[in-house]
Amino acid sequence: MDFSELEEIEGLRWSWHSWPVSKPEVSSLVVPLSIMCTPLTPFTELPILPYEPICCSQCAAVLNPYSRVDYASKIWVCPFCNRKNPFPRSYAHINENNIPAELFPTYSTIEYHLSHGNVSGSGSGSGLGFGRSASGQLGLRSNSSSFSSISSYSASGLGLDGAGAVVGVGPAFVFVVDGCTSPEELQVLKMELLHTITRLPENSLVGLVVFDAMARVYDLGFTDCSKVVVFHGEREVSSEQVKQFLRLHHVKQSLGKSPTVKQQGFLLPVAECEFNIMKAIEEIDSSPLIKPRHRPLRSTGVAISVAVGLLEGCSINTGSRVMVFTSGPATVGPGAIVSSDYGDSIRTHRDINTGYASFHKRSSNFYKQISRRLSDSSIVLDLFACSLDQVGAAELKVPVESSGGFMMLGETFESEQFRKCLRHLFHRDDDGNLKMFFDATIEVVTSNDVKLNGALGPCISVKKKNDSVSDKVIGEGGTHVWKTGTVTPKTCIAFFFEVANEQKAQPGSAFFIQFITRYRYSNTGLRKRVTTVARRWVTKHSPEIVSGFDQEAAAAVMARLAIDMAERNLSEEVIRWLDKNLIRFASKFGDYVQEDPSSFRLSTNFSLFPQFMYYLRRSQFIDVFNSTPDETAFFRLMLNRDAVINSLIMVQPTLFRYSFDGPPVPVVLDVCSISPDVILLFDSFFHVVVHYGSRIVQWRKLGYDRDPAHVSLKKLLEAVEVDAGQLAGERIPVPKLIKCDQHSSQARFLLAKLNPSVTQNSSGAAEGAEIVFTDDVSLQVFIEHLQALAVQG
Questions:
Q1: Distance between CA atoms of 94 and 100, rounded to whole angstroms?
Q2: pLDDT, mean of residues 585-598
Q3: Distant-in-sequence, close-in-space partners of 744: CB < 8 Å, separation ≥ 6
Q4: Which residue among 55, 437, 497, 538 is least enclosed by CB atoms within 10 Å?
């Protein structure tokens, strides 16, 4: 079974495609029942229906292809709870040859466009909808006629303008700028922010907060001179205090109704304040308060809290982002990670683990409170940190991740990495709308015999329980509805399930799971995407369990569980947990004679899983020895939100060999793949490394690539550079591109990730072979130990 092809149809990757019917059988699988869900998977064919979905009156599941329909009596039976539901009047003309799109068998995913002006109310029927005629054409239908064969619907009557956008206020953006940034860096940042302002739709709302030892909120509606409200950087301010100081109480609810509110000027449409905000940005001055041998005084926490309070006070209901641009650590007030004295070093992993990081716990708790405020008001927090030092990303990880925000760690605002990342966020679609999705909720509906444990990813539990919610919690649990400030077409969330205690399902029967994602697309109105899937219950000895195991999805799920555990435990404990589970897994699914390691075999469906676990346990996600807390937070945040393929690249990077023998070929991630006369292209998602063999380096230094007689060398060098540039250019955040020669210091980025099959302790190594100086066990030794432990009685 090709699971990647199935993902293109459903937008899902299942660790197990067939589920056992009892809890003990599920427990013996080791890898939990889980689904990696990418809610907004871009499908080649996705029907968009301009009306409200019909929902079951008992379990709230949406009408779907698995529903049983009685066309004569116009009744449908919900496959989740078996409740009979009547169709609304607008479905009066359905029959076996003329069915609505939501019942069509090939549409496991369907989207409803709940635009401004539509009749609201589940199941009421607006008189508009797509249907399928007997010929299979997608068409528009109305109350008075059967489905007509047209391929699109008009925006007239839906409260839309000519481009399909809802007329009114757009999303809001509050730019939070670090005033302690050096003059050169600040000038580059200001130029990029000015470019961003010019790219915003005119109805977008904008605000500006600049911070150093104080946080200053700009009144963009005051034209006579620069007018700001100043907040002390050392004092924590509540949401109510921010509203009081900015006098926002009287404009509550009014901002969303009119884009021309004059009662305050802290958050205004670009059309009204473009000149003022551009002038304010140009006038930002790098004048940090610095004592000798001290760091600049940065009140990052207060600035973020004030920006969130501004959006809370204005009650924006069209989506909003707080975008933080900083160049150093927070040193004063809530959110500080170090004192201003250079004599005090910024916390390390060891300091955090031993309790010596005096600022860490207080700062983390402060940002967790911010995280809840972001969720309550559907606000996104983005962090752009460009600094050679840590800035506090480890403490900021929770609010950025739970709101679905973007995080970038770079060295300088002058880098191409920063420019590409910021501009990527403000891309527009063909209609000129920002390609941003706000205020998303994901609801999961399950069959009666399936229970929900929780979710791991960029989301937060809304603590909404029903009969499908289990008492066992994994990640964000205790709910069947999750919320996040924003999602992207690449956002992936792992959901965890278990079977009910009183299992009544029969092997061979089907169970159903439905994902209902509600979100706002920029300012074009609300949308609801519904994905409904079915799988079968099986017995514990069924061959379908083995054939339905997706080892790639399972590896991605185990990686998320491991980093979730690593947030609360030492690396050694996480590695022991991974090893223990891998031994259980191998013992369960291996084919062997007891006490005979040489007889151990794993079927094709399971053979790569131990290899993934080997690279996971020695990855930067678990082994944090060479990473700062900020880097670790960034790595884990990215792994926790990306889909299966990218997750696997992060855990087990790819390696391609370029040689004169032919086109590039993938090679094993092993030190033996290094050769003097080849070029290697290494991709670990965060780094793209071009590694030149020593002989290639020598030829290049002699200028052979410029000699027409050696055109093949020139083509080889060009090919790998083009492919490396394409890899780095397509990915956001932009990976660091490293070009290095064999035996150079930069080659460490490659060597650190390779399987150390040849080390300083190896005997019989070939002369001139590359050697890795390490005490780590090789993959071969790891597998041998695994086999020996798995076959024990």
A1: 7
A2: 94
A3: none
A4: 55
Across-strand partners of 326? 385
Interval 235-240 mean pLDDT: 93
Burial code of 705-728, b = ≥16 C-beta within 10 A, e = fewer? Answer: beeeeeeebeebbeebeebbeebb
Contacting residues for 788 by C-beta, under 8 A, at least 6 apart: 597
In this prediction, residue 168 has a pLDDT band, given cuts at 50, 70 and 90, of low
Residue 254 is predicted with a pLDDT of 45
Q: Is the pLDDT of residue 153 over 70?
A: no
Beta bridge partners of 218: 228
Q: Tokens 């001179």 identify what position?
A: 225
Fold of 552-648+785-790: Four Helix Bundle (Hemerythrin (Met), subunit A) (1.20.120)
The contacts of residue 325 (CB under 8 Å, 6+ apart) are: 175, 176, 177, 178, 181, 189, 193, 384, 386, 413
Q: How confident is the model at residue 219 (pLDDT cuts 50, 70, 90)?
A: very high
Q: How far is CA 252 from the centre of its chain?
A: 32
Share of the chain above pLDDT 70, in %: 89
What CA–CA distance (Å, rounded) separates 443 from 430?
A: 29
Q: Which CATH architecture has domain 3-158+441-549?
A: Sandwich (2.60)
User: Based on the number of CB atoms within 10 Å of its own CB, is 768 exposed (0-12), middle (13-18) or buried (19 or more)?
Assistant: exposed
DSSP per-residue letters across 198-211 = HHS-TT-EEEEEEE
Query: Which among 688, 209, 198, 631 is positioned nearest to 426, based on CA atoms?
Result: 198
pLDDT score recorded for residue 170: 86
Helix axes 694-701, 711-730, angle to 10 degrees: 110
DSSP code for 538: E
Residues 175, 270: Cα–Cα separation, whole Å: 13
Amino acid making up residue 619? S
**Residues 494, 642: Cα–Cα separation, whole Å:** 10
CATH fourth-level superfamily of 653-754 = Severin (3.40.20.10)
Q: How many CB atoms lie within 10 A of CB 424?
A: 13
Closest by CA position to 86, among listed 140, 125, 129 = 125
What pLDDT band is residue 516 in, cutting at 50, 70 and 90?
A: very high
Instruction: Calculate the average pLDDT of the chain.
Output: 88
Strand partners, 12: 37
Backbone angles phi, psi at 194, to 5 degrees: -65, -40
Query: Does CATH place domain 172-425 in 3.40.50.410?
Result: yes
- Whole-structure pTM value: 0.91
Q: What is the CB neighbour count within 10 angstroms for residue 638? A: 18
| Per-domain boundaries in the chain | 3-158+441-549, 172-425, 552-648+785-790, 653-754
- Phi, psi for 294 (deg, rounded to 5): -130, 155
35-36-41 Cα angle (round to 5): 125
Residues 535-551 have pLDDT tens digits of 999 988 899 999 999 99
Q: Which helix (H) or strand (E) holds 461?
A: strand 460-461
Q: How confident is the model at residue 317 (pLDDT cuts 50, 70, 90)?
A: confident
* CA-derived radius of gyration, the chain: 28
Let me know: does 126 contact 141? Beta carbons within 8 Å: no
Label the pairing between strands 591-593 and 596-601: antiparallel
